[in-house]
Amino acid sequence: MTVQIHLVQLYPRQMNIYGDHGNVLTLRRQLEWRGFEPIVHDYNPGDRLPERVDIIIGGGGQDSGQSAVQTDLLDLRSQLSDLAEAETPMLMICGLYQMFGHRFDTVDGQSIDGIGLLDVTTVGQTERFIGNIVTQSSDFGRIIGYENHSGRTMLGPGSTPLGTVVSGAGNNGEDGTEGARSRNVLGSYLHGSLLPKNPALSAFLIDTALRNRGIDPSESSRADGSAVPSPSSAFETASTLAQRARTDAGNRPR
Ligand code: GLN
Questions:
Q1: 61-84 pLDDT per residue, tens
Q2: Cβ(182)–Cβ(119) under 8 Å?
Q3: Ligand 1 centroid to 51 CA: how many Å?
Q4: Are 177 and 155 spatial neighbours (Cβ–Cβ below 8 Å)?
Q5: Number of Cβ within a 10 Å radius of residue 222
Q6: I need a surface site. Which of 106, 129, 130, 193 has the fewest CB within 10 A?
Q7: Beta bridge partners of 141
Q8: In angstroms, what is the span from residue 62 Cα to ligand 1's centroid?
Q9: Who lines ligand 1 at CB under 6 A?
Q10: Cα–Cα distance between 10 and 8 in angstroms, integer?
């Protein structure tokens, strides 16, 4: 029996811009190449989370989209908090990164409550931070992407920055930080899509999910005896392309 890995994408209609869906596609393919069966669940307002949740992905959105999903996300708070306590890996980009924090005060004076899984607070400003961005992370090496946000995010002591800005603005354009992490919950402003050109992050999400299931990631290609496809050529092609994408994107002007 092939092991099924359940991936939840939060609010794909409202919170999914600048290529964020590519994060889900990347995880799906990488799981397949490693011999697992990815089951992708789109979670929309009013839905129930599936019984098993191995990885949660969320994207960015307009302030209006964030406002539209606010009530539903607050209803999910305790379930998501339990999953975070259980070390479930999560990656939240931009709009949902802000909403996994305590609050986002928009530039129009609206206050959008978040669920506080990350110790961050965000305030919108009229000038948006827009452009290519490169950061350096102690856990994941160089992280490369594209940012477009009005929000300035400040970290509290309960979260550590995901990276340090090499070029671009990051969390707030002032303190040189980008993104946040608490437990295995990662938040970042980087769209692009992020995961296709940052394989260390997708490996972290998948390996953590496997460990949570009692599977040794180093043996993942043998997780399913006969049903495991040979991952080599597709996986290698993708790795080569990812390296090229990293180089190209990392050398782009702002
Ligand atoms: N609406 C939020 C902001 O402007 C998030 C934007 C985004 O997700 N790209 O800061």
A1: 999 999 999 999 999 999 999 999
A2: yes
A3: 30
A4: yes
A5: 11
A6: 130
A7: 137
A8: 5
A9: 17, 60-63, 66, 94-95, 124, 148-151
A10: 6
User: What is the pLDDT, as a whole number, of residue 227?
Assistant: 47
Cα distances (angstroms) measured from residue 78 to each of 72, 73, 213: 12, 10, 21
pTM (two decimals): 0.94
Q: Which tens digits make up the pLDDT trace of 95-136? A: 999 999 999 999 999 999 999 999 999 999 999 999 999 999
Cα 197 to middle of ligand 1, angstroms? 21
Q: Which residue has the tokens 């919950």?
A: 185
Amino acid, single-letter form, for residue 90: M
* Residue to probe by mutation, ligand 1, list 20, 62, 104, most atoms within 8 Å of CB: 62
pLDDT at 221 over 60: no
**Residue 144 half-sphere exposure, CB side, CA atoms within 13 Å?**
18
Rounded percentage of the chain residues whose pLDDT exceeds 70: 95
Nearest to 34 by CA among 230, 200, 237: 230
Contact call for residues 133 and 178 (beta carbons, < 8 A): yes
Angle at 141 between CA 139 and CA 144, to 5 degrees: 120
Residue with tokens 């496997």: 210
